[in-house]
Design brief:
The protein is an alpha/beta fold. Helix content is about 30%, strand content about 20%. Strands 2-1-3-4-5 form a 5-stranded parallel beta sheet, sandwiched between helices. Helix 5 crosses helix 6 (about 170-175) and helix 5 (about 150-160) packs across helix 7 (about 185-200).
Length: about 230
C-alpha cells in the first residue's frame, strides 16, 4: 500500500473558507501547517515532509529567502511549490521546483503537487545536475523544470545513458525514430534545439549538448553545484 504523502503547507492567517489545508486533506494528503518562517523550518526538520507548499500572497516573510535557508541547511532536495498572486512574474532563480498562479482549481493544485512529489528511483535518470523523469516526461536542471514530448524525453534518455560519448546522427535516428534514413535530419535538429532550451543556461552557446561537426552530438552533464 502506498503511504500517504506528507505536505507542509505554509500560509499566513486567512479566513477559514480560504484555507487550503482542508481541501488538500480531502485530496488524500497528510497536511502539516505553519504560518511563520521559524515554524515552517521547525516542521521541515522534525516532520520531514515530501513537499513544501508556500502560499506567498499570505506570508509575511520572503519566500525566496526561505528557499535559500532550506538549501543552506542541506534540504535542497526538498521540492517547493510556490503559489503566486495573479499576474505575478515567475522567477526561476527563487529555488522553487514549481509555481502556480492564483486563481487555480483544487485539481490543478493537487496535480502540481503530485508532479513534484519524490518518485521511485526506477522512474528517474540522473546525471550530474540533470534529472529526467522517465514516466512523467519532464526534466529538472538546476532546479528548473521543463516538460518534454515523448520523443524529446527519449532523445534525452539516450544522451544521458551515453554521457561523454560522440553519438552519430544515424545512431540517434535509429534509436529514437526507429529508422535508418538520415537523408533529412531536420527533425533531429529541431529536437536538439528544444532539449537545449530545457537544459542549457544559454541555448545559443551550449555547454552540455554540443555539436560535433559532420558527425553528431556529445552530451556532457553539468556538475551538481557544490554546497
Amino acid at each position: 500500500m502506498t503511504p500517504t504523502p506528507t505536505i507542509l503547507l505554509v500560509e499566513g492567517r486567512k479566513p477559514t473558507v480560504e484555507r487550503l489545508a482542508p481541501v488538500l486533506n480531502d485530496q488524500g494528503y497528510n497536511v502539516l501547517t505553519a504560518n511563520t518562517r521559524r515554524g515552517a523550518l521547525n516542521k521541515v526538520r522534525k516532520e520531514l515532509p515530501a513537499v513544501v507548499v508556500l502560499d506567498t500572497p499570505s506570508l509575511r516573510f520572503s519566500s525566496q529567502r526561505f528557499c535559500e535557508t532550506l538549501r543552506n541547511s542541506g534540504s535542497e532536495v526538498l521540492p517547493v511549490l510556490m503559489l503566486l498572486p495573479q499576474g505575478a512574474t515567475i522567477d526561476r532563480s527563487d529555488g522553487a521546483r514549481g509555481h502556480l498562479r492564483y486563481p487555480f482549481s483544487i485539481k490543478k493544485l493537487s496535480n502540481r503537487i503530485g508532479r513534484i512529489l519524490p518518485v521511485p528511483d526506477d522512474e528517474t535518470l540522473q546525471v550530474g545536475s540533470i534529472t529526467l523523469n522517465l514516466k512523467q516526461r519532464y526534466v529538472v536542471c538546476d532546479g528548473r523544470e521543463s516538460s518534454l514530448t515523448p520523443r524529446q524525453a527519449a532523445l534525452l534518455e539516450v544522451f544521458m545513458r551515453h554521457t561523454d560519448e560522440i553519438l552519430t546522427r544515424s545512431f540517434l535516428m535509429k534509436r529514437v525514430w526507429k529508422t535508418d534514413y538520415v537523408g533529412d535530419t531536420r527533425t533531429l535538429e529541431v529536437h536538439i534545439h528544444w532539449l537545449r532550451k530545457a537544459i542549457e543556461k544559454d541555448p545559443s552557446s551550449p555547454v552540455c549538448l554540443r555539436t560535433v561537426r559532420r558527425i553528431g552530438y556529445r552530451f556532457e552533464a553539468p556538475e551538481k553545484p557544490k554546497k
